[in-house]
Design goal:
It is built from 11 helices and 10 strands. It is of the alpha+beta class and 305 residues long. The protein folds into 2 domains: 112 residues, Alpha-Beta Plaits (2-Layer Sandwich); 159 residues, 2-Layer Sandwich (Sulfite Reductase Hemoprotein, domain 1), CATH 3.30.413. The strands form 2 sheets. Strands 5, 6, 7, 8, 9 and 10 form a 6-stranded mixed β-sheet that branches. It has a 4-stranded antiparallel β-sheet with strand order 1-2-4-3. The longest helix has 15 residues. The protein is globular and about 60 Å long.
Length: 305
C-alpha cells in the first residue's frame, strides 16, 4: 500500500500556476462570444467553421472557471502521427509561454496539451496554432490515430507502422466525412509490446512478422476504459493478418460497414457491440489480395531489381 504522503504528492504536481484567477460564468460566455467574433467572423473564407470545429474538438473543459485545456494536434498528413519539426517545437514552447503559464504537456495519444489557457485568449491561440500547423480539428476522430514508430526506429518491432498511417489518413482526407464518421480510437503498434495501445483501440492494428515479411493483425471493439468507450477491454482479432498494402483498404471497408449499419447518432464502438464482429470481418476479408506466397514473390522481385 502506498503511504498517504505519496497520494498527497501527486496532486501537488498539478497545482494551479501563480496568476491563474477564476472568471465568472457570465464573463466566460462573453469572452467566448468575443473570441468567435474576433477570430472567425462569418464569411471569412470558411474560418468560422474551422474555428468552431477547433473549439468542439481541441478545446476541453477545465476545473477553473474562465480557463480551458487546449490540444495542439500533431496529426497532419505531411508528418507521421505525433511527429513535429524543430521549428514547430520552438513554436509550441512559445505558445505555452504566451498562452499557458509556460506549461506544456505531452498526451498519451501523441499530441501536445496547453493546460492553462484563458478563454479570452482562445481566438488568438487558434490563429497562432494554425500558423504553426497545430490546429487540425481532429481530436478523437479517425485521423487522430496513435501510431508507434515501429521498425523505422525500434529494434524490437516486427513491422513498420509509420507508412500505414498516411496510407490510412489519405482515405479520410475529407474533414466533413471524418466528422460524419465520428469518434473512433485507431491504435497501431509495431509489435506485441503494444506501444501503440492497439489492444485498446476501437480499431487496433498490430504488426507481426511472417517469414521476414511485414503483416498486420486487425482487432475491433477494444476500449481504454474512458467514459466514451466504456469498460476497459481488449479488442477481438478478426482473423489472419493482412499485408501492409491491404491495411488502408481494410480500415476503409470496416468504416464503410459501420456507416451502412449504424443507427442514428450511434458511435462506431457501439455499432460494433450491437451487431458483432462478423459483418466487419466479412468486409475486411474481401480486401485480401496478397498471400504469404505472393508477398514473397513481390519481395524477391524487388530484391532482384
Amino acid at each position: 500500500h502506498n503511504p498517504q504522503a505519496e497520494f498527497n504528492r501527486i496532486p501537488a504536481s498539478f497545482a494551479r500556476p501563480v496568476g491563474v484567477v477564476a472568471t465568472s460564468a457570465v464573463a466566460v460566455s462573453a469572452l467566448v462570444a468575443d473570441a468567435l467574433a474576433t477570430a472567425a467572423p462569418l464569411g471569412r473564407d470558411g474560418t468560422s467553421l474551422a474555428f468552431t470545429r477547433w473549439l468542439q474538438r481541441n478545446v476541453h473543459a477545465h476545473q477553473v472557471p474562465g480557463y480551458k485545456a487546449v490540444t495542439l494536434s500533431l496529426k497532419r498528413p505531411e508528418l507521421p502521427p505525433g511527429d513535429a519539426t524543430d521549428v514547430q517545437m520552438d513554436a509550441a514552447a512559445a505558445l505555452s509561454t504566451r498562452f499557458s503559464q509556460g506549461e506544456l504537456r505531452v498526451s498519451h495519444d501523441q499530441n501536445l496539451v496547453l493546460p492553462w489557457v484563458r478563454e479570452a485568449d482562445l481566438g488568438a491561440l487558434f490563429e497562432a496554432a494554425r500558423a504553426a500547423g497545430f490546429a487540425t480539428p481532429n481530436i478523437g476522430l479517425i485521423t487522430d490515430m496513435i501510431n508507434c514508430p515501429g521498425g523505422d526506429f525500434c529494434a524490437l518491432a516486427n513491422a513498420r507502422p509509420i507508412p500505414v498511417a498516411p496510407a490510412t489518413s489519405e482515405r479520410f482526407a475529407d474533414l466533413d466525412e471524418v466528422y460524419d464518421i465520428g469518434d473512433i480510437d485507431l491504435h497501431i503498434s509495431g509489435c506485441i509490446n503494444s506501444c501503440g495501445h492497439h489492444h485498446s483501440g476501437h480499431i487496433g492494428i498490430l504488426g507481426v512478422d511472417k517469414d521476414g515479411s511485414e503483416w498486420f493483425q486487425v482487432s475491433l471493439g477494444g476500449s481504454d476504459g474512458s467514459t466514451l468507450s466504456g469498460a476497459a477491454v481488449a479488442g477481438k482479432v478478426i482473423g489472419p493478418s493482412f499485408a501492409a498494402e491491404e491495411v488502408a483498404d481494410v480500415v476503409e471497408a470496416v468504416i464503410d460497414t459501420y456507416t451502412a449499419q449504424r443507427l442514428a447518432g450511434e458511435r462506431f464502438i457501439n455499432t460494433v457491440r450491437r451487431i458483432g464482429i462478423p459483418p466487419f470481418k466479412a468486409a475486411a476479408d474481401a480486401q485480401r489480395h496478397i498471400t504469404g506466397h505472393t508477398a514473397g514473390q513481390t519481395a524477391a522481385s524487388a530484391t532482384a531489381v
